[in-house]
């Protein structure tokens, strides 16, 4: 076994048969492939640490292109992004506060005010969803939602890799038909999250490695774990 790459607590090892001809233990450990480094380094940035400027169209276009590389049964491209920036965030805040007031009429005015102000915490909020096709029985709705969720993850990774910060948040308003409709989603669509986006504060959280215990195993037929 030879360590061929190491970064923080991640190491990559190869056995003799995996080594390329002439490959030997390097003096200085090379970095991981950039794509893998980007995946390992991504971390969410809370809205209060997201500042102006919001990403421009070129950055968003690359993030959308990355989103569209998600696995997609039947090539249905179910993911949908609706960008809300500038004064449109005020209108989104009204939608969120109105939704909360309808869903929980006893909500105190101060709590509604917090809901109203949520979209203003970051320069851009992205309503992310899935346009579900019910005329494709071979691709059930859960697969289309799974594909859209994978696309949203690619979108987050692409923003992070371009130096922008983002976080995927949810709220009861995601399941409010009138909110969905006001944002231009169809009845059959699913709203999957609010993605807050902006330029990260210098104090942004950095990626932390997560204990992989229990996450993965090799199946041995007949053996019950
Ligand atoms: C569908 C979905 C909804 C989420 N909703 C919330 C939320 O409402 N509030 C929250 O604090 N985190 C929420 N999260 C988790 C954050 O996006 C984030 O993953 C978490 O803060 C951990 O940070 P990390 O991504 O850097 O590990 C949600 C994640 C997903 C996938």
What does this structure look like?
This protein is an alpha+beta fold. The chain has a domain at 47-200: NADH Oxidase (3-Layer(aba) Sandwich), CATH 3.40.109.10. Helix content is 32%, strand content 19%. Strand 1 and strand 2 form a beta hairpin. Helix 3 (88-103) packs antiparallel against helix 4 (109-117). The longest helix has 21 residues, at 141-161. The structure holds flavin mononucleotide. Residues 43-44, 167-170, 193 line the site of flavin mononucleotide (FMN). Flavin mononucleotide (FMN) binds at residues 43-44, 167-170, 193.
Give the ligands present: flavin mononucleotide
CATH class category label of the domain at 47-200: Alpha Beta
Uncertain spans: 1-14
- The N- to C-terminal Cα distance equals 28 Å
The second-level CATH architecture of the domain at 47-200 is 3-Layer(aba) Sandwich
CATH topology of the domain at 47-200: NADH Oxidase
Structure annotation, total helices: 6
What is the total tally of β strands? 7
Strand content: 15-25%
């Amino acid at each position: 076994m030879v360590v061929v790459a190491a970064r923080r607590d991640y190491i990559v090892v190869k056995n003799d048969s995996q080594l390329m001809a002439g490959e030997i233990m390097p003096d200085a450990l090379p970095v991981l492939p950039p794509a893998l480094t980007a995946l390992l380094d991504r971390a969410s940035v809370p809205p209060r640490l997201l500042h102006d400027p919001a990403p421009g169209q070129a950055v968003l276009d690359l993030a959308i292109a990355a989103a569209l590389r998600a696995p997609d049964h039947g090539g249905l491209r179910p993911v949908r992004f609706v960008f809300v920036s500038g004064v449109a965030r005020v209108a989104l805040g009204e939608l969120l506060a109105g939704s909360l007031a309808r869903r929980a009429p006893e909500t105190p005015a101060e709590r509604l005010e917090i809901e109203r102000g949520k979209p203003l915490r970051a320069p851009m909020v992205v309503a992310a969803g899935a346009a579900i096709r019910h005329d494709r029985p071979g691709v059930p709705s859960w697969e289309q939602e799974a594909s859209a969720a994978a696309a949203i993850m690619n979108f987050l990774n692409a923003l992070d890799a371009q130096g922008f910060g983002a976080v995927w948040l949810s709220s009861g308003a995601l399941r409010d038909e009138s909110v969905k409709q006001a944002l231009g989603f169809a009845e059959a669509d699913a709203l999957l999250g609010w993605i807050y986006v902006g330029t990260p504060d210098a104090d942004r959280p950095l990626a932390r490695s997560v204990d992989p215990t229990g996450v993965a195993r090799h199946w041995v037929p007949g053996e019950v774990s």
